[in-house]
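Hi support team,

I submitted a single chain yesterday and got back a structure, but I'm not sure I'm reading the token output correctly. Could someone confirm the output below corresponds to the sequence I sent? I've pasted both exactly as they appear in my results page.

Thanks,
R.
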Amino acid sequence: MPGERVLICGAGIAGSITAYWLSEYGFRVVVIERSKREQKAGQGLEIEEPALSVVRAMGVLATLQERKTGEMGFTLVNEKGHSWGTLGAGGISLTGALEIMRGDLTEVLCNRADESPNVGFRFETTIRGVRQSNDKCMVDTQKRGDADITTEEFDLVIGADGVNSLTRQMVLGRDEELGIRKPIGAFVAYFSITSEEQDWPYSQLCHYPGRKILWIRPVGKDSKTSSVYLIHLNDDVPALHQANVTGDRQKQKEAFAELYKGLGWQTERVIDQMMNSENFYSDQLAQIKLPNWSKNRVGFVGDSAWAPTPFTGEGNQLAIIGAWVLAQELSRNRNQMGFEMYEKRFRGYVENAQAIPGWGYAPYILCPETAWGILSLQTVFWLIAGLTRFFLWTGMTKMMPERGGSLEKHPLFDLQMDVANDKKGI
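Hi R., thanks for writing in. Yes, this is the structure output for that exact sequence:
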């Protein structure tokens, strides 16, 4: 008997992992994605336990290791380019043991899911409407460049299309009406610039007064590009806010250029190349807090359900683990009850992970307002970097606990047992 038919909107991290695991459980999966298949964008990401156990179980860990950036650590610099110290990869460093660009990660996950005969991807395709009955969903989709709209029947629909999820707004209503978008008062921009020898092998971060950060990260030793992050921890830029609302990319670039003009270090180089960047992305950071992660036969996963923002450091982890939990619960309850059980099992974990460290003040401590605040932070970092070198020299770092915790040992996620039992039909 053919398995239930599921539509997943979004071929990113959560969407691709959900598709893979659902195919393992016998579902027939269609994944639609508005972007081109070959399109790569986004920032560098870190994968650590417990999410590492999920990708290991998918059989892609070796491939991800081959695709990692190779970034060897993190350096803090001042506006004149002088270093305040370096932390190697892992531990308390901003560089994880497995750093990979989002585009590379999603490509690997997408290809893994696409290997299954139960999964079909449709790129440059957008959802246009959803109508639910007691036992089915009728979904309208449209391929870019086509005037016609295609209507198909699915047993379940999953929105995995990000913080600005079109699926969520079609099914639940506009974000503004629901009050589910919680801005945290920060603007970000991601884009690539032509790499230079100085960009390798450490990422470099510089603070500027007014809570501004410029972070340049290497993509790979032989890469022709480096990745740039601009972070402005303030909501006092009306021009940037308006540009983000309208999606005017040129206006976004102009607003960031005005913010960072003349600040020193690499700002001139960055601004010049930003204005011609083709993979520029900007947004005002906000958390998504849905009162319910599903409505009847439509459910949500990843940022479309619970966007935590980069300030928590948990977005990538939650997308990976959440996709696996969702697929597992749907395999046990192959209808809307699976959505309910997935939320019951995972919501507490997500709510804890959404908490911004330091009772919400950590970003402000790590991104000071004044020059004196920046100098204080640089001094503390200099001391930490020095102590870390001492611990490495003495071998004391071996006594420190590892970050994260294995999924196999987590009381909520006994991966090895659960996967084995589910495939036996238990």
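A quick pointer for reading it: DSSP finds 15 helices and 18 strands in the chain. Let us know if anything else looks off.

Best,
Support desk
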